[in-house]
Amino acid sequence: MKNFLLLGVVLVLLSACSSKKSMISNSFNEQLSSNLYKNQFTGVLILDAITKDTIYDHNSHKYFIPASNTKIFTLFASLKILPKQIPALKYVESNDSLYFEGTGDPSFLHPYLKDSTAFKFLQKHNNVVYSSGNFEDKKYGPGWAWDDYQWYYSPEKNNLPINGNVVMVTPSNKIKVTPAYFKDSVLELATKNNRNEFSNTFFYGTQSNDTVEIPFITSNHTTTAILANLLSKNVSLTNKMPLGKKQTLYGMASDSLFKRMMHESDNFIAEQLLLVAGSVLKDTLNSKIIRTYILEKELNSLKQEPRWVDGSGLSRYNLFTPQNMIAVLDKLYSLIPKERLFTIFPAGGVSGTLKNRYVGDKQPYIYAKSGSLSNNYCLSGYLLTKSGKTLIFSFMNNHYRTSTLEVRTRMEQMLQKLRDTY
Known about the structure:
The chain is an alpha+beta fold. Among the domains are: about 25-65 and about 320-420, Beta-lactamase (3-Layer(aba) Sandwich); about 80-160 and about 215-280, no CATH class. Helix content is about 35%, strand content about 20%. The chain has helices at about 1-30, 70-80, 115-125, 220-230, 255-265, 265-280, 285-300, 320-335, 340-345, 405-420, and strands at about 40-50, 55-60, 85-95, 95-100, 130, 165-170, 175-180, 185-190, 200-205, 210-215, 235-240, 245-255, 365-375, 375-385, 390-400. The strands form four sheets. A five-stranded antiparallel β-sheet has the order 2-1-15-14-13, sandwiched between helices. Strand 4, helix 3 and strand 5 form a beta-alpha-beta unit. Helix 1 (about 1-30) packs antiparallel against helix 10 and helix 2 (about 70-80) packs parallel to helix 6 (about 265-280). The protein is globular, with a radius of gyration of 24 Å. The two termini are about 30 Å apart. This is D-alanyl-D-alanine carboxypeptidase / D-alanyl-D-alanine-endopeptidase (Penicillin-binding protein 4). GO terms for molecular function: serine-type carboxypeptidase activity. It comes from Maribacter ulvicola. One of its GO terms (biological process) is peptidoglycan metabolic process.
């Protein structure tokens, strides 16, 4: 008798689950067959985080330009390789000199992270020699738009970033320039450009009331000169560290960088984190090494091989499927506690790029990473249903000509339906 009762309960639960999936499927199919989606590409995959049951699937095996959804892969790589504290510098003390090299750590005097660990360390030494030879990457990622050179979201990459590799110009009685090394390079001039394309000459409108961030052209000599100005001492330059075991100086908590990358969709931090991972794994700053390692060693079971070319998603060369996204999100869900994971992702209606979208009734129901380029908008992450379920979802929209606002609004309606139904 007990077995029959148990069987009856199971059948009722399965029937209820099937009914909910059917309701969601009908609702989503109706939306995706509307005129809005006729001239664009859309892929959706929704998975139950616990049972691994597929709730909905639409074009999930097809490739899409992910934009900043790429940062989900960068986060996974960083969590797999980086220690709890970011390696800030590597160094060797030889005779009376301190030889040091960058690890790619983006937090060194970063305008928002404001980590001064490495700076204070260098201040304590009289003779410092900067070694630049461990950077084996390019300053821009493959397929980045050349005309983004002057905008805050596209700083150059290097092995020892300073101030996020941007010049901050702040209005006051007399404009404030950070790093101060560039104070004579900022011209008060009303122009549509922020910087000369080929030199570190910056422009700031005389009537502007906003602080602007302008990427500067990096070079080994520029880095050395900025450091010398900051430290008020001579900084020598070499391309090779002396013989001897390198020591590592550790800086701020890695999670602080992960949160900044995910909440603010910080492209610079994303790119630099892959370089830091290269420093840890191979003692070489090259993001391709890390991307290849992660795909071959940690994600070799992906059903479709991604095309992963940078850390931030600035490149349209990146190609990922919704199945790719779900697989990595599922691994993240298993890798770290949910409470920690959800603090790293933006929360709908509360934080980061989702602060004004996907608002819950009393608490967030969406923890996800958005990604946008012109004519592309993606959202992938975790959804909490009213029944207490945790779902993993990836929603990718490419090549639409309507407004992003309309695409986001439709997607929000569908995710609310998912929250309320399942």
